[in-house]
Specification:
The complex is a heterotrimer of chains A (about 350), B (about 300) and C (about 280). By secondary structure, chain A is α+β, with helices and mostly antiparallel strands. Chain A contains eight helices and 18 strands. In chain A, α2 runs parallel beside α4. Chain C has a two-stranded antiparallel ribbon with strand order 1-2. Chain C folds into two domains: about 60 residues, no CATH class; about 210 residues, Orthogonal Bundle (MetI-like fold). The chains are: A alpha+beta (about 350), B mainly alpha (about 300), C mainly alpha (about 280). Chains in contact: A-B, B-C.
Chain lengths: ~350, ~300, ~280
Amino acid sequence: MAVVETKGLTKVFKKGELGAVNDVNLLTQEGEFLVFLGPSGSGKTTLLRMIAGLETPTSGQILIGGQDVTHLSPRERRIAMVFQSYALYPHLTVYKNIAFPLKAQKVPKEQHKPKVEWAAGLLGIEKLLHRKPRELSGGERQRVALARAIVREPTVFLLDEPLSNLDAKLRTSAREELEEFHARIKTTTIYVTHDQVEAMALGDRVVVLHQGVVRQIGTPKEVYDDPADTFVATFLGSPPMNLIPEERDIVGFRPEHLLPASLISPDQRVSMHFHFSHEEYLGAERLLYGSLADKRFEGKDVISRLPSRVEASFAPGSIVEFAVPRNELKFFDRATEKRSESRVVSWQ
Amino acid sequence: MAITLGSRSTPESRAWWLGQGMFCPAMIYVLAVIGLPFALAVVYAFSDIKVGSVGYHFVGLQNFKSILHSATFLRALYDSFIFTVGSQILVLVGSTLLALALEKKFRGRGLVRFLMLLPWVAPVSIGAIGWKWILDSLYSVINWVLVRIPILHMDKFNPPQWLGEPTLAMASVILVHTWRLLPFSTVILLAGLSAIPKEIPEAAEIDGAGFWRKMFQINIPMLLPILNVALLFGIVFTFTDMTVVYILTRGGPYDTTQVVPSLAFFTGVLGGDLSEGAAISLFMVPILVIVAYMMLRTANRSEIT
Amino acid sequence: MARGRARELLMAACRWIVVVSFSVALAFPFYWMFITTFKQDADLYNTANNPFIFNLKPTLVHLQVLFRDTMYLRWAGNTALVGALVVLITLVLSLPAAYALARLTGKWGERMGIAMFLTYLVPPTLLFIPLSRVVAMLGLQDTIWSLVFVYPSFTIPFSTWLLMGFFKSIPRELEDAAMVDGLTRFGAFVRLVVPISISGILTVVIFTFTLVTQEFVYALTFIAPERNQMVGVGVPTFLIRGDVYFWGELMAACLITSLPIALLYNLFLDRFIAGFTVGAIK
């Protein structure tokens, strides 16, 4: 079990251009499931690969278990990695795939069989040991990749978007299996994804990355309820947070907090005129699309998210009185886009 | 595939007929110019036809029997195998090394690729005659260099006769075949190498594999199917080639570098003995059948992947 | 840290050794052709001189003799003519065949494709004896037409296989869309698929042409008179008087013949590999 730390980690691919990863400082907690979350190009995979040793940092340090591994090759770092494509050795059976790390680390031959069977048992693939990767389904391949990773009992687990190659239905069950897996082995795990739902569901903490810079590190609740800047605020949550620019700052509120005024107690109520346009019925909830009617907002589009049990209907084009609870308003500095002090707002 | 040609022609059946129509001319042409002569070769082999013969006399296996008793033929058969096996081993090792070295981009790789392709691109005969000059009995540049290396103690007035002494001549033929096939094999291997997803060697690296283990347990096994293809082509090209021998040595000295195809040429074309020439050339067929079988097997296996 | 860096340097050094030694070994004969072409005979045949450099001034004599006093240009012309005709015939026959195999004939088509490819394994050194009689019977003996007749037998399988790969990489939806718009399938082939595949077709043209220039056995067997011969046979055969090899002119001919082919080949190699890997994978 070890803790991964990076200090000022930077990776620049083309001189003179912005780095793929810029001055990243982070420290994992023992046994936690840490998620690197960000859109494509945010540097999350590059960051992971540097921790794995597959890319050399331009500057900065990487420490695993307190030891400086920045210039060590991957095999010297004693970590395990599961690639997006799983990278199973196609010419070897499942058994030999899982045994390969043991061979490579020169583990005595007698120990191979018991360890492979233990790893296979952990993932429920004992029956597949004699098959070749091309005969397996996507979910089975993922399990083999995990077994191969766990068989060496590594100190750190790295996973690079392992669920993105699975189709949607399989993804949820595979996600559950990953959670159970982590609960059982309790190894420090770093997981890369662009899917914020996955990140929130799996992560003990989430590292939100954008353009190679860490925007926020926090628990799912922290990054969702207390976003550090407008990027985090809009990246997490679907549909994204409504952002209203004012003279001094940007005011934000989530769609689920924009409700018909009557549903919010008067002392919390921050009212606004909602010019309703159309709605989408999604089953468990409804998305109401419209804009703010007040002239100074210039018809800024906003989205409201109503649970379906609220039976209220709206005529298209009508202006309805909606409101947001005062303590759910977030404020962001116009220039830096970072969270700023809450203030009093009155929009009536 | 059941095609029901009922009263209505469906788009599928129309497409099928169109396919036949588009494919047939080429197929007929190829069958005619390859299949018919092949059949003719068999017919000749079982006869005693020579250029200028009037009738056709069936003689059964007589030609084959006399060939198998001929020392010249047996020597040619032996040479064919030696040259093929020898050159293919060298090509396999050489092209693997070269392909691995050329895998990653580096400055000047384009130039290297151009230079490396020259032996394959130049017509066989041109390359061969170039080598003939390099291996010349009097003016060989190789000898010029060797004679001047003190440790070799080479006799200045009696340097190696690369095309004049049997063992050396055989070595020279193997050398030229290897030289000619290396580029072809390297190019195929490079294509195979680029088909390996880069994550697999990375995974091996993370699993703890060092350079040699990665090479021999991951890279090379994954290259095996394509190595197979390159090898099979190489065998066909070398075994059935007469040009190198014809130009370098004409089969000499004293028929010691003769190969089956060149012997067939000298017997059947220059000598006019069509039936014996045909019989000799038919001895190549078993090898080709084996190669064809191996190729189909590899093709089938890789299709499953 | 030092370990990793030292290892990198060692690998790079090994790579350089391999690359340089192989490049030299493979390209040396051509350097040799080059230097022989421009060396005076007196320098060439003097074993005391260092053969790697010009000891006397370089000369254009060999080139002049080659062009003036030998039939080299005629052979080159013959080869170009045969090449052009064979390319034409090959394209006319293999374009539709390749399309049929790629699109229209399903499983059976794949087998036919493999069968056609297997004909490649029947060597000229097996067929040349009966073919020499066929050629004589057709009265094409000693003319370039014998080659125009026979060469497509190996250029067509090769071209068909290569074109098949190129065609397979074009999405089917394109032709489907064209047919919905009113073209027949054959019309879609001619007006849509062929123009899109121009780069693949060009590659096939180049490779077919080089196959023609490299051929030796048939040309040697079917054609005797010097003036009708091809470059590949003419050069090693007729630039010799008895036992005397005119090395200067020989090497000049070799050099001039090899270089243009090499340049063309190099330009199109990447496309060839792309088509080759597509064809090989499926």
